[in-house]
Design brief:
By secondary structure, the protein is an alpha+beta fold. It is built from 5 helices and 26 strands. The protein has 4 domains: 4-140, Phage minor tail protein U (Alpha-Beta Plaits); 154-186, no CATH class; 189-234, no CATH class; 240-428, no CATH class.
C-alpha cells in the first residue's frame, strides 16, 4: 500500500522536476517561512492526518506554494502575479495526479472534488505570497492481516496479494525477478561465479553487478533462480621490474643513446607483465637497502645483484644481473680511445657470444641506476668498478662533438670525444 512517506517522496519528486518550483519542504506551517533556505518559489507540505473509510485510507494535506517578492517592487502587483503563476503550478500538480504522469506508479484513487485553493499572503520575516491547496489523496486499504507483522498472525494462503520481487540491474534500472504467490516463501538466490570447469569461485548479492579482475568471461546464463558466470581466471605470474628512464630521442652518431631510443627502443624497455605475481622493489628496511630486494628474484633469493647462476661470484668479464631494473652488466671496463669507437656494440656482443638483446654502452641514466653517490662507488661489490672517468652514450645536446662522462663517479660533465676514458656495457635482462 501507499504510505505517507511514499506520498512525501512523490510530491518532492514533482517539485524537483518542475521547472518553476525551486525548493520543497514539509512539516509544521511555522517551518515554511525559513530564512535558512532562501530558494523560492517554495512548495511546502503539511500533513493533517488520515481518515479510514470502507476500502480506502484518505490522506489529508495542505500544500503551500509561495514566493517572496524582490526588494523595491510593487508588492500588490507582484502578489497578483505570484498567485496567478502558482495557481498554474497547482493545476500542474492536479493534472499529474489525475492522469498518473509521474507522481504515483501504483494503484490509487484521487477525487478532484476534494481539492480546494485559497490565495494567501503571509507576513513574517519574509513576505510570502502564494496559494494554499487543500487536498485529499485516497489509497486502497482493506483492513487485512497481510499488513500486520505480528507473532501469531499468519495470513491464509491466497488471502493476500501476490508479491513482486525486484532487484537493481546496472546503476539505476529496476527489474522484476519473479512473482511470489500469496502465502508462499521466496529465498533469494546466490550469484555464483564459476570457472569453465564449473567450480564455484565465490558468491555475490542478488543484483547482477559484479567485477572479475584478470579474468575472461566466457559465458553468462541467467534464470529466475540464479545467474551463472563462466570465466577463465588468470593466475598471477611473472615479475614486474622497475624501469630505467630513457627519453633521449636525438641521435648524433650510430649507437649513441638517441640512436638506441629511435632504432632499438624495445631493447631499452622491460617486458610488459599484465598480471604480475610480484612487483619488484627494494627493501628499504634492510641493512643494505640498495642491494636487497623486498621479494625473491628468479633465483629464489633477495639479492638485487647476482651472477647468472644466482650466486655472488662473477668471473672477470662475466655478467652481473640487476634484479630490480631487469638489467645485465659486464663486470669489467673496456678502454675507449675516442667517442667514435666507444659506441660500437659489435665488440661487446662477441663478449657474451651474441645475445637476444644487444650490449650497449651505458647511458647516464643506466650508470645512475647502479651508482651510490654517497660512497662514490656502485651499490654492490660484484662490480669491480673504481671511481674513474667513464664515458656514457649520451651526447651533450647543444654540441654533437661533445659527450657526457661520469667524472670521478660522482658527477657528469662533457668533453670532446678525443679523450681516452673507460666505458662499460649493459643490456636489458635475458633471463
Amino acid at each position: 500500500m501507499i504510505t505517507y512517506n511514499n506520498i512525501v517522496t512523490a510530491l518532492n519528486n514533482f517539485a524537483d522536476n518542475h521547472f518553476f518550483i525551486k525548493a520543497f519542504t514539509h512539516g509544521n506551517i511555522e517551518e515554511m517561512d525559513l530564512e535558512k533556505d532562501g530558494s523560492y518559489p517554495l512548495m511546502h507540505l503539511v500533513y493533517l492526518g488520515a481518515n479510514y473509510d470502507e476500502g480506502t485510507k484518505d490522506y489529508n494535506f495542505e500544500i503551500y506554494l509561495v514566493d517572496i517578492p524582490p526588494t523595491k517592487v510593487d508588492k500588490v502587483s507582484y502578489q497578483r502575479e505570484v498567485i496567478s503563476n502558482l495557481e498554474q503550478c497547482v493545476e500542474d500538480l492536479l493534472a499529474d495526479l489525475s492522469n498518473g504522469f509521474s507522481i504515483f506508479n501504483e494503484n490509487f484513487h484521487f477525487d478532484t472534488e476534494n481539492a480546494s485553493l485559497t490565495p494567501l499572503e503571509e507576513e513574517g520575516s519574509n513576505v510570502l505570497s502564494g496559494v494554499a491547496l487543500d487536498i485529499t489523496i485516497s489509497v486502497p486499504y482493506t483492513h487485512d492481516s497481510c499488513n500486520a507483522p505480528l507473532t501469531g498472525v499468519t495470513p491464509t494462503s491466497g488471502d493476500c496479494e501476490d508479491a513482486t520481487i525486484k532487484a537493481t540491474e546496472g546503476d539505476d534500472d529496476i527489474v522484476t525477478l519473479t512473482t511470489v504467490a500469496s502465502g508462499a516463501i521466496y529465498t533469494f538466490p546466490k550469484l555464483e561465479i564459476r570457472q569453465q570447469d564449473a567450480s564455484v569461485q565465490g558468491y555475490g548479492r542478488v543484483d547482477k553487478r559484479f567485477k572479475l579482475t584478470n579474468a575472461d568471461i566466457t559465458g553468462v546464463v541467467e534464470t529466475v533462480d540464479e545467474i551463472q558466470v563462466t570465466a577463465d581466471i588468470t593466475t598471477p605470474s611473472g615479475i614486474l621490474y622497475a624501469q630505467i628512464l630513457h627519453t633521449v630521442d636525438t641521435s648524433y652518431d650510430t649507437y649513441d643513446h638517441g640512436w638506441w631510443f629511435i632504432n632499438r627502443n624495445s631493447e631499452l624497455r622491460n617486458p610488459t607483465v599484465s598480471n604480475p605475481a610480484t612487483i619488484q622493489m627494494l627493501d628499504l628496511a634492510a641493512a643494505d637497502p640498495y642491494a636487497t630486494l623486498k621479494y625473491d628474484n628468479v633465483h629464489g633469493n633477495k639479492n638485487r645483484f647476482t651472477a647468472q647462476d644466482g650466486t655472488q661470484t662473477v668471473a672477470a668479464g662475466g655478467v652481473i644481473e640487476d634484479h630490480l631494473y631487469y638489467m645485465e652488466w659486464i663486470n669489467t671496463f673496456f678502454a675507449a680511445a675516442s667517442q667514435t669507437t666507444h659506441y660500437t656494440d659489435a665488440e661487446a656482443d662477441t663478449t657474451d657470444g651474441g645475445a637476444t638483446n644487444h650490449w650497449r654502452l651505458a647511458s647516464a641514466t643506466d650508470l645512475i641506476s647502479i651508482w651510490d653517490y654517497g660512497d662514490s662507488a656502485v651499490y654492490n661489490s660484484l662490480f669491480p668498478f673504481t671511481a674513474t672517468n667513464i664515458w656514457t652514450s649520451d651526447r651533450y645536446a647543444p654540441s654533437s662533438t661533445n659527450s657526457l662522462y661520469s667524472w670521478g663517479g660522482v658527477a657528469f660533465s662533457r668533453r670532446a670525444g678525443t679523450a681516452t676514458y673507460s666505458g662499460c656495457y649493459c643490456r636489458r635482462g635475458t633471463w
